[in-house]
């Protein structure tokens, strides 16, 4: 017991250093949303794949350039074809962000490491004045 009392600072250092190792892990797993501007940055710098999980008609009416269309119902079967590398970022988008959250859960279950949604979905993308393209090309 004397050892503990006389060397309390060693235990404090051990606890603090352990906490410092644990904090980055919390940050990495925390946020699953990005702003439209952050999504563009990830697309340009990290080669993020954008997967649109809206209905085919909505996708054809206007989508993010380069986005792959995979309906939420078919995501488990078709995500591997749309986003081949599970280590690269995948950004899901829907109309307002609600369905994309479900897509994140499916992607994590399939082993994708970096999955996020665009906060506010296509609505936020349009409000940010970012370009959209029309047509069914995925």
Task: List its salient traits.
Rhodanese-like_dom_sf; 138 residues; membrane; 7 helices; 2 domains; Rhodanese-like_dom; Oxidized Rhodanese, domain 1; single chain; transmembrane; Rhodanese-like domain-containing protein; alpha/beta; five-stranded parallel beta sheet; 51% helix
Please name the fourth-level CATH homologous superfamily of the largest domain: Rhodanese-like domain
Order of helices and strands: HHEHEHEHEHEH
Q: How far apart are the termini? A: 68 Å
Structural class: alpha/beta
Based on the coordinates given, report the CATH architecture of the largest domain.
Answer: 3-Layer(aba) Sandwich
Number of continuous helical runs: 7
Helix content: 40-55%
| Uncertain stretches of 5 or more adjacent residues | none
Radius of gyration: 20 Å
Instruction: Choose one word for the global shape.
Output: elongated
Determine and state the CATH class of the largest domain. Alpha Beta
Q: Mind summarizing the main beta sheet?
A: 5 strands, parallel
Number of domains: 2
> How do the strands of the widest beta sheet line up side by side?
1-5-4-2-3
Question: What is the count of β-strands?
Answer: 5
CATH fold topology of the largest domain = Oxidized Rhodanese, domain 1
The average pLDDT is 88
Share of residues in strands:
5-15%
Organism: Lampropedia aestuarii
InterPro entries: GlpE_sulfurtransferase (IPR050229), Rhodanese-like_dom (IPR001763), Rhodanese-like_dom_sf (IPR036873)
Keywords: Membrane, Transmembrane, Transmembrane helix
Protein name: Rhodanese-like domain-containing protein
């Amino acid at each position: 017991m004397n050892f503990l009392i006389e060397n309390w600072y060693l235990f404090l250092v051990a606890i603090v250093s352990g906490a410092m190792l644990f904090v980055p892990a919390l940050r990495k797993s925390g946020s699953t949303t990005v702003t439209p501007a952050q999504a563009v940055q990830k697309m340009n710098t990290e080669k993020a794949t954008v997967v649109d999980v809206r209905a085919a008609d909505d996708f054809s009416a206007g989508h993010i350039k380069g986005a792959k269309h995979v309906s939420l119902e078919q995501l488990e079967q078709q995500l591997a074809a749309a986003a081949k590398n599970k280590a690269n970022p995948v950004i899901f988008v829907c109309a307002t962000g609600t369905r994309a959250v479900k897509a994140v859960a499916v992607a994590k279950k399939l082993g994708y490491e970096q999955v996020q949604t665009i906060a506010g979905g296509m609505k936020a993308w349009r409000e940010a004045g970012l370009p959209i393209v029309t047509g069914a090309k995925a």
